[in-house]
């Protein structure tokens, strides 16, 4: 049994993935800029989306900016992904998150082992998937793809 994949379908998936990655990092830097301005932090660090080494402290405004911007970015991107990929938000959300983890590891030259970073990332992915899937269902419920479970 051979795997049959059409080139056109693969191209559409890759283009959608590229769009989602560009949207993700664009939203991330916009939200970071707003959070830096709101918290009156003088210098916007270009590597802030990849910073998992900052010590967690609720009184540290830089740490708060990192956590708040991550959560807002993931939630907003879930909603935007629904507009790009319709009902496949969960798939693209997980893929973009895995790519973000890989990019973070490369940029910071080590794999993130900080529990607080993984908790923030995990809650962000959950909000991205839930928010995006709910919006996709509301917008596209007339042509939503439901699995056929008759064979089970």
Describe the structure.
The longest helix is centred in the N-terminal third of the chain and has 32 residues, at 7-38. Helix 2 packs antiparallel against helix 3 (89-108) and helix 3 runs antiparallel to helix 4 (115-140). The chain is elongated and about 55 Å long. It is an all-alpha fold and 152 residues long. The chain contains 4 helices and no strands. It has helices at 7-38, 61-85, 89-108, 115-140.
Following the backbone from N to C, one meets helices and strands in this order, namely HHHH
The overall strand count is 0
Low-confidence regions: none
* Major sheet: none
In short:
The protein is an all-alpha fold and 152 residues long. The chain is 68% helix and 0% strand. The longest helix is centred in the first third of the chain and has 32 residues, at 7-38.
For the structure shown, list the relevant keywords.
152 residues, mainly alpha
Write the layout of secondary structure elements.
Layout: H1 7-38, H2 61-85, H3 89-108, H4 115-140
Helix pairs in contact: 1-2, 1-3, 2-3, 2-4, 3-4
